[in-house]
Amino acid sequence: MDKKATWDRFYTENSSKTTAFKNFEWFFGFDAVRDLILPLLQTKSNPDALLQILDMGCGTSALGPCVYKHSPVPVRVTCADISPIAVRLMQEHVRSKAIEPHSLSSQLEFIELDCTQLHKHFGPGSVDLIVDKGTTDALLRSKEGKGKAGLVLKECLEVLRSSGSLLQFSDEDPDARLPWLETEALQEHGVKAADVGVQEVGELRGVVYYCYQVTPRPVVKQ
């Protein structure tokens, strides 16, 4: 599940099954997590600039567009996916729906981007919030993708502001995910690069989901 061709095929086949576009949601939709995301945006409000939000591995989910639509503060939402098929489908869908944001200065874009190479699009310390709904899960459950999952986390920590956050939504139990996150967030010499927390999202269709929040630690200059 870490291969671009796999996702191109998935979105091509999924879109060909119906003439009308329908968002495909991994796990759950925006309403399940809006009370976790929207209040967090208000705590990060910057009156001088748009908040930079990344929906990483967006696929054809409505999550990113819903954040753009409902955010109480001005945001620039970048929905990024490795599949150009998914990006094209979302661009066409959003164009046809003409979504109006709560804040008229908010912006929304869709780009093709490998999440192991976030630095190619975002500068260091430039992103306020990264939302990961199932992307890391897909990598961790692929034998060849486990190394990529660690690289993705390090890329996220590189592009996040010191006041920023990474939200990983997952059905993986904290007993497994928290130790992995703690280990991957270590810098050289065992210094922690981030703090990690977890809260339960809720039970949906018999499965319990969690929100893992990763917050970069300020860099201490020697």
Question: Can you give a write-up of this model?
Answer:
- Its main location: mitochondrion.
- This is Citrate synthase-lysine N-methyltransferase CSKMT, mitochondrial.
- The chain is α/β, with parallel strands linked by helices.
- It has one domain (4-216): 3-Layer(aba) Sandwich (Rossmann fold).
- It has helices at residues 4-16, 34-43, 63-70, 84-97, 135-140, 146-159, 174-184, and strands at 51-56, 75-81, 107-112, 127-133, 160-170, 194-204, 207-216.
- Strands 3-2-1-4-5-7-6 form a seven-stranded mixed beta sheet, with helices on both faces.
- Helix 3 links the parallel strand 1 (51-56) and strand 2 (75-81).
- Helix 1 crosses helix 4 (84-97).
- It is globular, with a radius of gyration of 17 Å.
How does the SSE layout of this entry go?
Elements (H helix, E strand, L loop, with lengths): L3 H13 L17 H10 L7 E6 L6 H8 L4 E7 L2 H14 L9 E6 L14 E7 L1 H6 L5 H14 E11 L3 H11 L9 E11 L2 E10 L6
Parallel strand pairs: 1-2, 1-4, 2-3, 4-5
Antiparallel strand pairs: 5-7, 6-7
InterPro entries: Lys/N-term_MeTrsfase_sf (IPR051419), Methyltranfer_dom (IPR025714), SAM-dependent_MTases_sf (IPR029063)
Family: Belongs to the methyltransferase superfamily.
Protein name: Citrate synthase-lysine N-methyltransferase CSKMT, mitochondrial
